[in-house]
Amino acid sequence: MGDGLVKQVAERLAGEVRAEDTAARLGGDEFVVLMTELAEDPEMALMETQIVVQKIQSAIARPFHIDGNELHVSISIGITLFPENSDVADDVLKQADIAMYKAKEQGRDTFQFYLPSMQLAASERLQMENDLRKAIHNGELSLHYQPQFSIDDRLMGAECLLRWLHPEEGMISQARFIPVAEDSGLILSIGEWVMRSACKQLRMWELEGRGGEINRLAINVSPKQFKQRDFVVMVSRIIEKGDSGSAIVETIISMTHHLGLEVIAEGVETRGQLDFLKHSGCHHFQGYYFNRPLPVDEFEKELNESINPV
């Protein structure tokens, strides 16, 4: 958030709080509002707080004008009451922070009141982040490869899917650890590892004489990776290092159509879906109708069977 925008946000924030309240900037794009002289009755205090919060939301929802440009800003608000939840300043700020992240999870432009149960969830999330950091260094992450087939049923590639085998909890779902990786920034190092590992595996298959059989791997890329200034250079270097010239690494993301990339229909689970997609002009497919994501040894077995059908 630029300085000009920060200044305007601060001005609007100060204009919506009550005279007895205090508004301050914590740093970056985070602000704190200290509301005092609320009603002693908890329900009335909540209502008074909610009125101010809604005024702040309305004020921030109006467009900002910076250097001739119109900008729209979203806001996530976390709220905690004291001394009901705590009378220690650091604890109060932590509780508001936890509630704010809960609001972000709900889709932004919303607010959440702190609940004690959120503390447990935050602690579990922090533990997962620490475990994920260890997983990167301890080699607990691996890639599985879900086969992709052409319109003539030829195995022509695969999507690389990340798997995490935790030493104590076993296989952990992507739905649990990917959001943590995104929020913590670990997705950047994980994403680079995925690219390097995929290119290395593709190169190994090529050296084994299978380069003509499978010459593409689809890799899911986080929006945060795209925002890296050196993203294109990094990808180019990885491909150049792991590729002899004939192998191609394709990045498959949700905005495929906008980027003009080749479309692969994912999630094909029935023959009816496959027939419909073929009839609609789709030429590449992937899904449990063909196979589940496979460890490398099982994928190679599938590859051999595809080359030499019984």
Automatic annotation (TrEMBL):
EAL domain: residues covered: 125-310
SUPFAM superfamilies in UniProt: EAL domain-like (SSF141868), Nucleotide cyclase (SSF55073)
GGDEF domain boundaries: 1-116
Superkingdom of origin: Bacteria
UniProt-listed PROSITE patterns: EAL, GGDEF
CDD domains: EAL, GGDEF
Name of this chain's protein: GGDEF domain-containing protein
Species in which this protein is naturally found: Solemya pervernicosa gill symbiont
